[in-house]
Design a protein that fits this description.
Chain A is of the alpha+beta class and 768 residues long. Chain A is built from 19 helices and 29 strands. Chain A folds into four domains: 20-28 and 456-593, Aldehyde oxidase/xanthine dehydrogenase, molybdopterin binding domain (Aldehyde Oxidoreductase, domain 4, 2-Layer Sandwich); 34-133 and 185-275, Aldehyde Oxidoreductase, domain 3, CATH 3.90.1170.50; 135-178 and 279-386, 2-Layer Sandwich (Aldehyde Oxidoreductase, domain 4); 396-450 and 607-768, 2-Layer Sandwich (Aldehyde Oxidoreductase, domain 4), CATH 3.30.365. The longest helix of chain A has 27 residues, at 522-548. Chain B has three domains: 5-86 and 174-243, Roll (Ubiquitin-like (UB roll)), CATH 3.10.20.30; 91-168, Orthogonal Bundle (DNA polymerase, domain 1); 251-469, CO dehydrogenase flavoprotein, C-terminal domain (Enolase-like, domain 1, 2-Layer Sandwich). Chain B has a five-stranded mixed β-sheet with strand order 2-1-5-3-4. Chain B has a five-stranded antiparallel β-sheet with strand order 10-11-16-12-13. In chain B, helix 2 crosses helix 5, helix 16 runs antiparallel to helix 17 (426-439) and helix 17 runs antiparallel to helix 18. The mean pLDDT of chain B is 96. At the A-B interface, helix 1, helix 3, strand 28, helix 17 and helix 19 of A face helix 2, helix 3, helix 4, helix 5 and helix 18 of B.
């Protein structure tokens, strides 16, 4: 039977994104595309023009009098609490009261008949400020004695001071690592539709519907059961829609309830970039002790982060920087500490990698330091320090699933690394204007939310009497193919064609108390929850079929399109119809929680991660030493996603993450004026990679032999974040090309991002 | 005698008696018509999510080009055929080959940028059936994708090119019918308003000259690649607007000069550059992205007076002149004298830039360099145009102009002095590279620091010498796409 029917879209098959045809025809609906309710109003935010100041006067008369204006909302108009702090710090006002704490902070909201009217009206506000002491960057904040936005963390194992003292060689350095704007193509947006009683429905582009639900309830002063949050898809998220849209959803909801009309809010791109958080930039002081063979003996480091004016997710983000301060290397004695600095800038937030990249890149900088000090290929130093199974991380988790030696060997061969490195050295030895660099860097990334309770998920599956399946889960679709992969799991479970499984919007009405679709966990958690629901229904169907078709239960099997009762094959539809008539429950709610994980932040010990995902990349670049421009000549990537649920979608994640990671470290630069105004707040000034910035040769491969050693969904591994850090290979290769102008006597030690300017200035510094 | 604003939108004729000069095409599509396939990503012409095709009649027939609907004013679509993603279909009415290839090669993830990519690639597929990976990248300079890393999109574009089928495409098949409909649209002056927001579309250049004598402070809108942002970003009142991109399209090539009408777009000028100033073709293809090059005009780039405009540095180096017209009177000004100070140009009320005259100094050594944070579709930190003539082994004349180094595009007087009369050799260019440091006091901003700008300004002179002296040495980065 099985051989006769071919079905599409089972687990582990290359399957197109479920919305691909809608994407290319423009029929995929994003929040701004939804049919607009009659009488829809539009809200727009008025933003501060002062980095830190007391509001001395706020004249909104001209705003109120502007054409089309219905209302102007200030903090006093919020019925519940004026706070959207996701971590419960109560430090994230929706609308500033008395004091503004960054340039671009929302101060009021205008509600008008059209978006254009609301926007024009918002520009008419006259607000005066009495300037207060401001600090914009982490070291400035430290010097000014600013406090931490949240509790710092120290990870410690052994005695770093003693280890450093005893080490034959020691190197100290400081590394500035820039932030990054998400630049999701679809900006922040929410549309609230009022209902009867205290009800309100919010359509919003969010990675975290349950949090929006809870925030809106708090701000309206109602119970969560009155708020419904819907998300069909986002036009990109990358962490920028994990907490940042809460504010917009709340403003829309407040206005909608107040006027009993639907209200939409969509900031212009410049306001979106000014008023929402970004990847944290860091200044890191590191010291590494090592021996003459390049083995790391001790590491001591301090990670100072620009957190912005409030905590937001800075706690877990700066924690994760420390969790990845070792990247893939064993540090015998280690002390690393975070310093989540309060600054008068927008509150920084989640962004793909969630602090991890800012840990990993420091580990790689230390490897570089050691290699240059010893005159060795950094790859040798990397190999000498890779974790061996059984060794402990700085947070005392035992590494048990190390596969990097095998990945290194495979990638070194497939990329022809050794010959190409020699060719690069030979080329540079000629001393021309164009210099080259090559680097192979790994990533080891811990999978699970470090907030252990987030590692849970729910699902809801209905099978209708015609045999069609409706699938719902708590994850959100932002382009990563989550819905497709979870649907494949369900199709596989029922042995039916993927087209039978309807992927529905995410809604808090169907699955409650969901976690953010973040930390690369979407498929791991929701795939398992969906499988749980499917298994429940399957169990009922097995019981039913065994009874109805008179077969032992262990001989009832799901085969393509059919269910076997012993030797009898019954079409799936027929079974479902019969099951309905027999009053079998054809709906189930599934649930999953990640096993084995625990984390005690107070002691800095535990097993925060269920498993590690690994990857490695080789990048080769050319640098123009006259201008600092560069090109990525070639990149070879080998990445570990365990047994991929959908290789083609996973490959797309790896490619996209690599390019986004190179953007972070090359052309994407955030630049503030002395007054604290972000001047790179639109694509005209903030440059994300274009097609012509991608590697000129780009070979991306999944490690198809890898299998998750833990019982993850179908033994696959998470893919969203880990490959982002492979962009570090490009950064290191650029550093090598720069270092060549001084014959590699010292590393280039470029701060990130390595803009053409930083590259040229680095070259001039080394040339003396 | 004035008429309605008329254009074709996909397969329908649109006639509007009420329209404002600051109404954008994107808002018309998304808000007025609820055609939501076209997306807004940035509202400043930098991301390409709003890409649509605009077809217009030219001397060579109906020409379709991808443009940014977000900064394209509705009034500038008068007499044109606007084609959105909703209109795209294959010969059998199903998916278009571009769409099929994008699905098969997994070219979309979040999908928000996708309609814009599809439309840009559609424009390329129609206009250049032989496009290779490099041509595809050039066509996609104006499209941002944050998810895919672009690789699958390039593969999809190559596959669609290979699939062919241009001859059966709807816009090809219907070309004559569409052209006839556009030709049938009245050519008289259009003068429409929405409230106080007024848009005037002159019938011809003489009509424009007359209008400018009547109106005190109209906003002249050519490609709108800058004026568009005055509206979408700065919320400025630009009424009354006079739309001129359909005017001054003429080009005349003589033995000694290129005479280019002020309304000629970068894209329209590109073949001329390729033929007569091939040294500048690479520079030319790095002016903004394709959509902007299809809208932006050389006249607009000059009239606008930006200190970092892309064309002035090279045009000043070439000793270009412009013809300014007021009523029936015309005067010629050397381009270098047109830029008086930051934000101040030598253009009197009622005057407009009509023609750009570029001398063709066939024996000269010419170069144009643009340095920016990102290679493509970025505003330059430093741009340089250079034109040298030699007599024997000596430099007879030197014109070097920079953008991004001062409040206006400006010649490097000291560097020029250091070169003229000297032997064409390394010593002269080293001297010029030192001298150029004293020529400018650049600013630091988000694009680059003063130190970097100065260092690059000097090094570009060194680069030029290396290119001249060691043609076989790799002096420039190689951006070719490999296997």
């Amino acid at each position: 039977m099985k051989d006769e029917i071919s079905i599409k879209g089972l687990a582990h098959m290359d399957t197109a994104h479920d919305s691909a045809a809608k994407h290319v025809t423009g029929r995929a609906e994003y929040t701004d595309d939804l049919a607009e309710p009659q009488g829809l109003l539009h809200a727009y935010l008025g933003l501060s023009k002062c980095a830190h100041g007391r509001i001395t006067a706020m004249d909104l008369e001209a705003v109120r009098a502007a054409p089309g204006v219905i209302d102007v909302l200030t903090a006093a108009d919020l019925p519940g609490v004026n706070d959207v702090s996701p971590a419960g710090h109560h430090d994230d006002p929706i609308l500033a009261e008395q004091e503004v704490k960054f340039w671009g902070q929302p101060v009021f909201a205008v509600v008008a008949e059209t978006r254009d009217q609301a926007r024009r009206a918002a520009a008419l506000a006259k607000i005066s400020y009495e300037p207060l002491l401001q600090a914009l960057d982490p070291m400035g904040a430290k010097a000014a004695g600013m406090d931490y936005v949240t509790d710092p963390l120290t990870l410690r194992r052994g005695d770093a001071a003693q280890g450093l003292a005893a080490a034959p060689r020691r190197i100290k350095g400081r590394f500035g690592i820039g932030g990054q704007d998400h630049f999701y193509l679809e900006g922040q947006i929410a549309m609230a539709v009022p209902g009867e009683d205290e009800d309100v429905t919010i359509n919003v582009s969010t990675q975290h519907p349950s949090e929006v639900q809870h925030m809106v309830a708090h701000v309206l002063g109602v119970q969560s059961h009155s708020v419904v949050v819907n998300v069909r898809r986002m036009g990109g998220g990358f962490g920028g829609k994990e907490t940042q849209m809460n504010l917009f959803a709340c403003v829309a909801a407040v206005a909608a309830k107040k006027w009993n009309r639907a209200v939409k809010i969509r900031p212009d791109r410049d306001d979106d970039m000014s008023a929402t958080g970004k990847r944290h930039d860091f200044v890191v002081d590191y010291e590494v002790g090592f021996d003459d063979q390049g083995r790391i003996l001790a590491v001591d480091g301090d990670w100072y982060a620009r957190c912005g004016f409030s905590a937001d997710l800075s706690g877990p983000v700066t924690d994760r920087a420390l969790f990845h301060a070792d990247n893939a290397y064993y540090y015998p004695d280690v002390r690393v500490s975070s310093h989540p600095m309060r600054t008068n800038t927008v509150s920084n937030t989640a962004f793909r990698g969630f602090g991890g990249p800012q840990g990993v890149i420091v580990a790689e900088r230390m490897i570089e330091e050691i290699a240059y000090a010893l005159g060795r290929d950094p790859l040798e130093i990397r190999k000498a320090n890779l974790y061996q199974n059984g060794q402990l991380t700085p947070y005392h988790q035992e590494v048990t699933d190390q596969i990097l030696p095998q990945m290194f060997a495979e990638l070194e061969a497939s990329s022809d690394y050794q010959a190409r490195r020699q060719a690069v050295l030979d080329w540079n030895a000629k001393g021309g204007v164009i210099r080259k660099g090559i680097a192979l860097t790994p990533v080891k990334f811990g999978i699970s939310f470090t907030a252990t309770w987030y590692n849970q998920a729910g699902s809801l599956i209905h099978i209708y009497s015609d045999g069609s399946i409706a699938l719902n889960h708590g994850g959100t679709e932002m382009g990563q193919g989550l819905n497709t992969k979870v649907a494949q799991v369900v199709a596989e479970a029922f042995q039916c064609d993927l087209s039978r499984v309807k992927i529905t919007k995410t809604t808090t009405e169907k699955v409650p108390n969901t976690s953010a679709t973040a930390a690369s966990s979407g498929t791991d958690l929701n795939g398992m929850a969906a499988l749980d629901a499917a298994e429940q229904i399957k169990t009922r169907l097995v019981d039913f079929v065994a009874e109805r078709w008179q077969a032992p239960k262990d001989q009832v099997r799901f085969v393509p399109g059919h269910i076997m009762a012993g030797e009898t094959a019954i079409p799936f539809d027929e079974v479902i119809k019969a099951a309905y008539m027999a009053r079998i429950h054809l709906s189930a709610a599934g649930f999953y929680k990640t096993p084995k994980i625990h984390w005690d932040r107070s002691t800095g010990r535990g097993r925060p991660f269920y498993y590690f995902a690994y990857g490695a990349a080789v990048a080769e670049v050319s640098v123009d030493t006259l201008t600092g421009e560069y090109v990525i000549d070639r990149a070879d990537v080998l990445h570990d996603v365990g047994r991929s649920l959908n290789p083609i979608i996973d490959k797309g994640q790896v490619e996209g993450a690599f390019v986004q990671g190179t953007g972070w470290l090359t052309c994407e630069e955030l630049w503030w004026s002395e007054k604290g105004e972000l001047k790179t707040h639109a694509p005209s000034t903030y440059k994300i990679p274009l097609a012509s910035d991608r590697p000129r040769v780009f070979n991306v491969k999944l490690a198809d032999w890898s299998e998750n050693t833990e019982r993850s969904i179908k033994r696959s591994k998470a893919v969203g974040e880990p490959p982002f850090m492979l962009g570090i290979s490009v950064f290191e290769a650029i550093n090598m090309a720069v270092a060549s102008v001084a014959d590699y006597r010292e590393p280039a030690r470029l701060d990130a991002p390595a803009t053409p300017e930083r590259v040229l200035m680095g070259i001039r510094r080394l040339q003396g | 005698m004035t008429g309605d604003l008329r254009f074709l939108l996909n397969d329908r004729e649109v006639a509007l008696s009420s329209a404002g000069g600051s109404d954008t095409l994107l808002d018309f599509l998304r808000i007025d018509r609820r055609m939501t396939g076209t997306k807004e990503g940035c509202a400043e012409g930098d991301c390409g999510a709003c890409t649509v095709l605009v077809g217009r009649l030219t001397d060579q027939g109906l020409r379709y080009e991808p443009v940014n609907a977000c900064i394209r004013f509705l009034a500038s679509c008068h007499g044109c055929h606007v084609v959105t993603v909703e209109h795209l279909r294959g010969p059998d009415g199903g998916l278009h080959p571009i769409q099929t290839a994008m699905i098969e090669h997994h070219g979309s993830q979040c999908g928000f940028c996708t309609p814009g990519f599809v439309m840009a690639l559609y424009g390329l597929w129609m206009s250049n059936p032989a496009a290779d990976a490099m041509a595809i990248e050039t066509a996609l300079q104006g499209n941002l994708c944050r998810c895919t890393g672009y690789e699958p999109i390039i593969k999809a574009a190559l596959a669609a090119q290979a699939a062919g089928g241009q001859a059966m495409d709807a816009l090809t098949v219907e070309r004559e019918v569409v052209a006839a409909k556009l030709r049938a649209m009245p050519r008289e002056r259009v003068d429409v308003s929405k409230g106080a927001d007024r848009a005037i579309i002159p019938a011809d250049t003489d009509d424009l000259a007359a209008l400018l004598l009547e109106h005190q402070k109209p906003t002249l809108v050519a490609g709108a690649t800058d004026v568009g942002l005055w509206v979408t970003k700065f919320l400025r009142n630009i009424s009354p607007t006079i739309f001129i991109a359909h005017l001054m399209k003429g080009v005349e090539v003589t033995e000694t000069e290129l005479k280019i009408g002020a309304g000629v777009t970068y894209s329209e000028a590109e073949p001329l550059i390729a033929e007569h100033l091939p040294e500048l073709l690479d520079y030319w293809q790095r002016i903004a992205g394709w959509q902007v090059r299809n809208m932006g005009t050389i006249g607009g780039n000059i009239a606008n007076g930006s200190p970092i405009g892309d064309t002035p540095p090279v045009l000043i180096a070439l000793d270009a002149r412009i013809v300014l017209r007021k009523g029936a009177e015309r005067r010629e000004v050397a381009l270098q004298d047109y830029f008086i100070d930051y934000g101040k140009q030598d253009r009197a009320p009622g005057e407009f830039v009509e023609t750009i005259i570029i001398p063709l100094n066939r024996g000269a050594k010419i170069a144009g360099y643009k340095i920016s944070k990102r290679r493509d579709s970025d505003i330059s930190s430093v741009a340089m145009g250079l034109c040298l003539t030699l007599e024997g082994d000596k430099i007879a004349s030197a014109r070097i102009a920079y953008g991004g180094m001062a409040g206006t595009p400006k010649r490097a007087a000291g560097a020029e002095v250091a070169l003229v009369g000297q032997v064409f050799g390394k010593a002269a260019f080293e001297a010029a590279a030192r001298a150029v440091l004293a020529d400018f006091t650049p600013l630091s901003d988000m694009r680059a620091s003063a130190d970097y700008r100065s260092a690059v300004a000097a090094n570009l002179l060194r680069r030029f010498w290396l290119e001249q002296s060691e043609p076989d040495l790799p002096v420039r980065l190689n951006y070719a796409v490999g296997e």
